[in-house]
């Protein structure tokens, strides 16, 4: 890992005066660890690999040095081109990144554009006709623009990949390789990921030149200010118990996670019947709806937001007092990402997980192995309907945790294929690549529900036809989901 002298103030970085002025207006005083380590390295022009979770300040870590370097050599972009290309996995995250660039660059008349699915492409083509300095995009829509001759990548000087592991999970790794193949060899690349699986490490090695490596907040850590609770309930009682919980808890803003899009909509309807106002965001919602709901959630007009993991990627909202796992995730690292949505900016938070059945107890044991904590349990099940007591989690006081056991995931069958393909552990390009280039249909690939209930997260409903899988009474927990 690259070791640098950590600076304690944004003024110590020597950023251009217009950028420093914008930071003061944004009340940016003390850099976060990822910012303190990354900004000095990026200012020198070095490639950087950063391992950091969502919410650690990655956007400023790459945006500030890039804006400074743009000002050092301010040239007009060529038509249909950009100087800075930022790739991110979701529409929401892309929009937030662009907002940050525009905020930090408000005094330098920055030209920028956003390329995401779910909105007409013609408008995006017109926005880059004269060329822009900063382009933030999701991979599928970017390729659409390139293939339609609406965008040229030969002038890119700075490339940023944010949330690289999530892009791998969503099936974008082949698209990323295609995009990188069209970029100039001489460029600065900043590469960020919350985790570093084998495929991501290989991608970074192929893309970067002698990169500096920085890392903060290991994925196995959980914020100390978060109170974590496990409540065992009957599966049929989950909706009523959630409504009761939201009425009893001192909720400022609550973010409720479900595993599927269908499940998110069912939770919203159940809460409405209980007299609790809530709304949902997921892949089947239009981009306008998602933006409108997120704005209302930030403003406090909506106190309860129900989301799937992929749609929630990029939600950066202060004041989330509670995170509720209505469905426990089947990937342990996802649990850490979810609960990290609360307890931000020095605040405290509560993370509550509703557990029903042996399958979710298995997921819980995987999570406890990862975070090396036995979480306190409350049993609210109906007597006579209790599951068999789970085996105690094994923990190691020193060294590495016990090996994790994961549920298998079945990828969607490609159109015209005879059936689904089972992804390998690495989850790279061995799975079925998405075939529809339109970002609205490929941004969030279908994920089979471990319980087979409802449409799984990510499908837009028009790109593929699929059969809902039947419940697997003996779930295969030998493969890690891609």
Which short descriptors sum up this protein?
482 residues; alpha/beta; Rossmann fold; 3 domains; 16 helices; 14 strands; RNA helicase activity; DEAD/DEAH_box_helicase_dom; helicase; DEAD/DEAH_RhlB
Low-confidence stretches: 387-482
User: Distance N terminus to C terminus?
Assistant: 27 Å
Number of separate strands: 14
CATH top-level class of the largest domain: Alpha Beta
Beta-strand residue percentage? 5-15%
User: Largest beta sheet, briefly?
Assistant: 7 strands, parallel
Structural class: alpha/beta
Q: Report helical residue fraction.
A: 25-40%
Q: How many domains in all?
A: 3
The largest beta-sheet arranges its strands as 3-4-2-5-6-1-7
Please characterize this protein's 3D structure.
- With 482 residues, the protein is an alpha/beta fold.
- The chain folds into 3 domains: 10-215, 3-Layer(aba) Sandwich (Rossmann fold), CATH 3.40.50.300; 226-379, Rossmann fold; 406-482, no CATH class.
- The protein contains 16 helices and 14 strands.
- It has helices spanning 17-25, 33-43, 58-72, 91-104, 121-127, 139-147, 164-169, 173-181, 198-207, 238-248, 261-273, 287-299, 309-312, 332-339, 357-371, 439-442, and strands at 48-51, 82-87, 112-115, 132-137, 158-161, 188-193, 212-215, 226-232, 254-257, 279-281, 304-307, 322-325, 349-355, 377-379.
- A 7-stranded parallel beta sheet has the order 3-4-2-5-6-1-7, with helices on both faces. Strands 10-11-9-12-13-8-14 form a 7-stranded parallel beta sheet, with helices on both faces.
- α12 links the parallel β10 (279-281) and β11 (304-307).
- α6 packs across α8.
